[in-house]
Amino acid sequence: MSTLGNFVWSIADQLRGVYRPHQYGGIVLPFTILRRLDCLLEPTRDDVRALAEKFDGGALDVQVKRKTGLTFYNTSQYDFARLLEDPEGLRANLIDYISHFSGNIDVFERFGFEAEINRLEEKNRLYLIVAKFAEVDLHPDTVPNAAMGDLYEYLIYKFAEASNEEAGEHYTPRDAIRLMVDLLFAEENEALLEPGTIRTIYDPTAGTGGMLSVAEERLLERNPQARLRLYGQEINDLSYAICKSDMIGKGQEVSNIRLGDTLADDKFFDKTFDFCMSNPPYGVDWRASEAGVREERKKGEPSGRFGPGLPPVSDGQMLFLTHLAHKMRPAHEGGGRAGIVLNGSPLFTGAPESGPSEIRRWLLENDLVDAIIALPTAMFFNTGIATYVWVLDNRKKPERRGKVQLIDASGMWTKMRKSLGSKRKEIDAATREQIVKLYDYFGETEHSKICNTTDFGYWQITIERPLLGNDDERVTDRKGNPKPDPKKRDTENVPFNYGGNTLGDAGRDEAARAYLKDEVLPYVPDAWIDTKKTKVGYEISFTQLFYTYTPPRPLEEIDRDLDAQIQKIMGLLREVEK
Predict the structure, then answer these.
(1) Which of 33, 70, 422, 473 is deepest in the core (most CB within 10 A)?
(2) Residue partners of 353: CB distance under 8 A and separation at least 6
(3) pTM as predicted
(4) pLDDT average, residue stretch 519-536
(5) Gap between the Cα atoms of 184 and 189, Å rounded
(6) SS3 for 319?
């Protein structure tokens, strides 16, 4: 792939002096897409031209699909070979060629391709570029769909590198995707092996389509007779164009890849899916989507996709979390599963009854969180921070109901021979199998913890102490009750299961009284709880659950090491003096 990728990217050498390096992608990418479509259409070109003489519009769409099995076509008389036969008319003929694609091929306008063609002609580079791409054989027999997806991503990486952008903004590393896919498929292994199995998968942040492509590849590896229908929405024009082109080559329904802002305008508002996957941006504000999100929340029911709560405008990743929870096929229709990569903040950020805490509360109280897996750092192209895969399921197996499995896979990785951006580690096949086995085992180990959904909930109680007057006497209100001292006010988090208490108002009050008696009154006997201020919170203390205490080294051992170092230093100083 690197050989083919380097060859395709080397065509940009023809652009030197006319374009800056960061502009190369705007030429190389659309020409690569065009050449791929040109190769895909080659076997059926004559049939389509014949049909175009008899039919047009929707009738032609139907006839082409019936005759060729393709959901797209081109009725122009041109292809790459014929374009080169008329150098003088190349600009006009190329524009004619592009304009005769079926209406569902809208990818070239996303690049402003016609304007670039005019510029290439003006700078006497158009023929050179077309001739170079005509030499590249991108027929599926030569470059299979999986390899073509790799080529697109390689070119995106080169484009991002030349533009000083982050490649991770457009696509996710394949090793991370394979792990997510295997985790999603783990609960349906037997069903997915049945002949003729049909499933749907959806990515609301589709990028260049890598997650969708890998999911299809993994399913077909297990069951060549299976069919996975791919759906995706993408906000970036360039990524959308590549994703749609890649899906076309796979024989997927072209209209299932849609352009737009998923948060503000869900293009699949009336659909749910068997599987959902996403790698949304971390720490990116959602101000541009805010009006649409708030309006939808205002009109929608509490059970709507943003009903549980809204995170701070500074970070929108939890909006995608609740969005995916609502895109899973309902349990009564067979249920759905979702996987999403997030950074650490959705585990714990936000005070009790804040937006993030209420989102966690909704997910856990509705038993939608199946597992959370801590990935190694330095796994992604554009960040080296800790990341986590959340696996959601609205129809858990009986043994998993009311439970959440936490897996610490942060130490399970192999070092890459060559770093790619921030990515220095990868999860190879053996490591991936090890993680999936931990998930399947569903038991307590060094790297796996099984928790109740209620283990993550707590009551935040407000501890008050009396306000004292000038004579150190308690100040009371008109009813004789002591007034609290705001300066001494404190809050404590009391776990739902503190003292073995149950949930509900009675359990809350019992747990609060027990906590006050055990943890507070021995130190401040005059304290009390203001029950009117009690709040509910949820947080997932992932690191704490896997923390292993390591005792400090004995002082005698430390002293010996220090003495040895001092002697070493003194010896070096004596050498210098000599």
Answers:
(1) 33
(2) 535, 536, 537
(3) 0.89
(4) 93
(5) 10
(6) helix
For the chain, give the percent of residues with pLDDT over 70.
97
Residue whose C-alpha is closest to residue 229's, from 246, 249, 215, 245? 215
Give residue-wise pLDDT tens across range 416-452. 988 877 888 999 999 999 999 999 999 999 999 999 9
Per-residue pLDDT tens for 207-257? 989 899 999 999 999 999 999 999 999 999 988 998 999 898 888 988 999
AA letter at 550: T
What letter would DSSP give residue 328? B
| Cβ count near 382 (within 10 Å) | 16
Tell me what pLDDT residue 146 has.
85
Beta strands 337-343 and 387-393, pairing class: antiparallel
> Distance between CA 148 and CA 136 in Å, rounded?
12
User: Could you please report the per-residue DSSP string of 44-111?
Assistant: GHHHHHHHHTT--HHHHHHHHHHHH--S--B--S--HHHHHT-STTHHHHHHHHHHTB-TT---GGGG
Burial category of 497 from C-beta neighbours within 10 Å (exposed 0-12, middle 13-18, buried 19 and up): middle
CB neighbour class for 20 (10 Å; exposed up to 12, middle 13-18, buried from 19):
exposed
CA separation for the pair 232, 381 (Å, rounded):
22
Q: State the average pLDDT over residues 527-540.
A: 94
CA angle 435, 332, 357 (to 5 degrees): 60
Indicate the residue type of 525: P
